[in-house]
Amino acid sequence: MQVVDPIRSLHVDELAVYIYRNREEMAGAAVVRAAQALQAGIAARGEARAVFASAPSQIEFLHGLGEVQQLEWNRVTAFHLDEYLHLPSDAPQAFGQFLREHLFDRVRPSRVWFLDGNARDISAEIDRYERLLREAPPDLACVGVGENGHLAFNEPDSADFDDPSLLRVVALSPRSRLQQVHDGCFDALDAVPTEAITLTVPAIMTARTIVCVVPGPTKREALQRMLRGPVSASCPASILRRHPDAALYADLEAAPAL
Fold first, then answer.
1. Which residues are catalytic?
2. What is the DSSP pairing of strand 48-52 with strand 76-80?
3. Cα 236 vs. chain centroid, distance in angstroms?
4. Under 8 Å between Cβ of 201 and 151
5. What is the CA radius of gyration of the chain?
6. pTM for the whole thing?
7. Of the CATH numbers 3.40.50.720, 3.40.50.1970, 3.20.20.210, 3.40.50.1360, which one belongs to the domain with range 16-216+239-251?
């Protein structure tokens, strides 16, 4: 994957922002930063821990990351950001299944910890995943931004920047559910699950490095609010402006006004 210079770069508070001509250039640059974070974790501690988002907006990035030859995936432990409740784990829309297809089956990490949205006891499932996350901070969190500014499935106005938990069950907003239809994941709104398990905002912010990949015209409004509005739960993704090592990679379709 070719790496080129951005057409514009800037900082918004602590957040580095890079804008590229198209999705391929954007993904190539994000891959370089993500690979560096994983390699740094392996060099420092003998292994790296990473959390991955699941969405069509991430496909070019995930495929590119899977093509980095020098990455020692047998030293990487992987997690995912969120999962629907009560959707069969082998359904193509399930986030764990998405990551298997677009990354994990290609690179074979040392360990992959999947969230089980069909667990008989969801509270116990959250406890299990929290214990795994608390073993060590992630070296890398790979995230996107929702059309309404959500981060993972932390929804506007219900997100808690000081949440003491690392995961929680959330009710999905109509706009977040409609985004899944826009993305072609579901044929109709009624088919989209209404609840999910998500890593909380503080859980994401524990990552040493955050790489945020945001392409496409449907994300313009969210990026404007994220970068030009206040840091607020009304746009959960705006919290990335307070992370000491976070970078946003966008294409020109997503960020023409920037």
1. 82, 148, 150, 155
2. parallel
3. 13
4. yes
5. 17
6. 0.96
7. 3.40.50.1360
The pLDDT profile of the chain, 258 residues, written as one tens digit per residue, is 668 999 999 999 999 999 999 999 999 999 999 999 999 999 999 999 999 999 999 999 999 999 999 999 999 999 999 999 999 888 899 999 999 999 999 999 999 999 999 999 999 999 999 999 999 999 999 999 999 999 999 999 899 999 999 999 999 999 999 999 988 999 999 999 999 999 999 999 999 999 999 999 999 999 999 999 999 999 999 999 999 999 999 999 999 877
- How buried is residue 148: exposed, middle or buried, by Cβ count under 10 Å (0-12/13-18/19+)? buried
The residue assigned the tokens 């929290």 is: 130
**What token pair was written down for 216?**
């496409």
